[in-house]
Amino acid sequence: MTDASDDLCPQPGRLPPLATEPLAAPIWLSSVYRCHDPQQAEAMLAGTLPGFVYSREGHPNAQLLAEKCRLLHGAPNGAVVASGMAALATVLLAHCQQGDHVVVSDQLYGRSHALWVDEAARLGIASTIVDTCDPKATAAAMTERTKLLLAETISNPLLRVADIAQLAEIAHSRGAKLVVDNTFASPALCRPMEFGADLVVESLTKIMNGHSDVLLGMLCGREDAWGRVSRILATYGFTAAPFESWLAERGIGTLHLRIERASANALAAAQFLAEQPEVEAVHYPGLSTHPDHALAAGQFGGRYGWMVTFTLRGDLTAASKFIAAARRIPFCPSLGDICTTLTHPASTSHRLLPQPARDKLGIRDGTIRLSVGIESEQFVLDAIAEGQAPAG
Ligand SMILES: Cc1ncc(COP(=O)(O)O)c(C=O)c1O
Prior knowledge:
Blueprint: H1 4-8, H2 38-46, H3 60-73, E1 77-81, H4 84-95, E2 101-105, H5 110-122, E3 126-130, H6 135-141, E4 146-152, H7 164-173, E5 177-181, E6 199-203, E7 217-221, H8 229-236, H9 242-252, H10 255-274, E8 279-283, H11 293-300, E9 307-312, H12 315-325, E10 341-343, H13 355-361, E11 367-371, H14 377-388
This protein binds pyridoxal-5'-phosphate.
Pyridoxal-5'-phosphate (PLP) binds at residues 83-85, 109, 112, 152, 156, 181, 183-184, 203, 205, 215, 217.
């Protein structure tokens, strides 16, 4: 037996006419959009008519967030994707094919290294790993087959700073494009395209969203570097989800305030750590002892970011003791949260990097990476000092 409600229940509801616009963006969870006719659907799918048909191809929340990222970077094109890794994969797949070559920094996030070296090799794309802080070595690594040069604005985990203008010159002189992973800087510290980068990638999972409740990535690029990006996103299904896009758009609202507070706290933390006898080395671009301090001052407008890496004397035992004793700093292998967190690169982000390569870079078992939050400066310093006390 059926009644009218059997038919009514499955019918999609219709939006009420809206005389006013909501101030906060709605979340458009619909995976598909009602089209007027085949011509409209085809034109929208072809990109000749603005609008949405199927959310893997695009949806309002992703577009809203992408537009914000694009404007923050002063870029003609922007897109958001399901993760920072999806953004990096999009760039690789959009620009390279079998027989091509890429030059990548020897200081990359571990998974990024795995993508640009190991996975690229499986696709027939050769890679050369080079110290991108060494312009001569970088220029020498470029060949006529090189399509992309990749570096991180502030490298993970040792916080070396890329000279973006110099790298752009090297890439362009060989007909290649410069890709910059700006995750550790964000557009609040650095807009790599102003220094000549062709493509910028960020993990929005980190400081851009800032609340550890979203996994997302973004990429921005010049007109002549965009080419196949939209096709790759939709074909490989790297699309960002609506709810995540909405959350990140909200998180970005406080980006500049968070960066300002966290950068001031990070400088204080770095200065404090530099005075501790248990600490062998502190890596922070805001310290005058950092090899890229002057470059960072010019590129980042007087702030040096919220990440501080330090190496304890005594390797893994010392690191484990510190992590256990610093009870108010959660051990989280991520970064950019509003609260201070720490991680241990050798066992997390860089565990896939062979030990000799880690040793060569200076990533020791005693190396700890702090992501400094927006708590008070006193809280941050006290919480670090607790790490130096023996665990009870
Ligand atoms: C510098 C850098 N790039 C890219 C990524 C990848 O981002 P996601 O975790 O959002 O895929 C990370 C992750 O930690 C990172 O640190």
